[in-house]
């Protein structure tokens, strides 16, 4: 494997201005000739504030997936509620109610010790939408606000740092019962996704990319 980048190549430095990638990401990008694509995608797709389409996907979502970690305890959790239960409350801020659960507080306990979280919103309805968020979460216990949200025990507020709508090609259409059209065929080939043909990507594809022209 390629050598890990030195401390001078840490994210956000003059040596590597990336806000999205750390040394581990960079090591694999360099090993598999993917840094050009990664840099182009970060430059074109990463955002630090919600666009209208991001806010619309969040507002319509009846669920999302939440990733937290603290002291070696890594957790991925499903969070569900009525559409609109996750509310965009600022240009790069959102919150959702925590409902009655099993009293283990795996996700919230992680947040108390380590507020960095990841969120994943997916539409499984054939619209091919996927939105990844990173941010820092905090717990809010405001009696007046909680009283206005049926079933809310507390609120989780997130200051979002990275907004990244990325490739949805392997997402199945669960509503229509159809698998993704981009799954590998029996011979190993696959349909090329639209994004690989974009003018800022197609000439940057890795040397061994199956859809490289």
UniProtKB/TrEMBL annotation:
<feature type="compositionally biased region" description="Basic and acidic residues">
    <location>
        <begin position="195"/>
        <end position="213"/>
    </location>
</feature>
<dbReference type="InterPro" id="IPR011576">
    <property type="entry name" value="Pyridox_Oxase_N"/>
</dbReference>
<protein>
    <recommendedName>
        <fullName>Pyridoxamine 5'-phosphate oxidase N-terminal domain-containing protein</fullName>
    </recommendedName>
</protein>
<dbReference type="InterPro" id="IPR012349">
    <property type="entry name" value="Split_barrel_FMN-bd"/>
</dbReference>
<dbReference type="Pfam" id="PF01243">
    <property type="entry name" value="PNPOx_N"/>
</dbReference>
<feature type="region of interest" description="Disordered">
    <location>
        <begin position="181"/>
        <end position="213"/>
    </location>
</feature>
<feature type="domain" description="Pyridoxamine 5'-phosphate oxidase N-terminal">
    <location>
        <begin position="51"/>
        <end position="150"/>
    </location>
</feature>
């Amino acid at each position: 494997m390629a050598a890990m980048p030195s401390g001078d190549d840490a994210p956000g430095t003059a040596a590597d201005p990336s806000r999205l990638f750390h040394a581990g990401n960079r090591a694999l990008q360099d090993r598999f000739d993917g840094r050009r694509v990664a840099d182009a995608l970060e430059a074109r797709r990463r955002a630090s504030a919600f666009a209208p389409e991001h806010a619309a996907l969040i507002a319509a979502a009846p669920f999302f997936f939440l990733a937290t970690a603290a002291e070696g305890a890594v957790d991925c959790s499903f969070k569900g509620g009525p559409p609109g239960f996750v509310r965009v409350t600022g240009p790069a801020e959102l919150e959702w109610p925590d409902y009655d659960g099993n009293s283990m507080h795996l996700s919230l306990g992680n947040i108390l010790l380590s507020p960095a979280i990841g969120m994943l919103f997916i539409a499984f309805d054939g619209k091919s939408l996927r939105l990844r968020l990173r941010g820092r979460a905090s717990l809010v216990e405001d009696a007046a606000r909680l009283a206005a949200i049926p079933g809310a025990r507390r609120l989780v507020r997130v200051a979002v740092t990275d907004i990244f709508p990325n490739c949805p090609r392997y997402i199945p259409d669960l509503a229509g019962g159809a698998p993704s059209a981009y799954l590998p065929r029996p011979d190993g080939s696959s349909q090329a996704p639209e994004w690989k043909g974009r003018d800022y990507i197609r000439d940057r594809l890795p040397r061994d990319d199956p859809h490289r022209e």
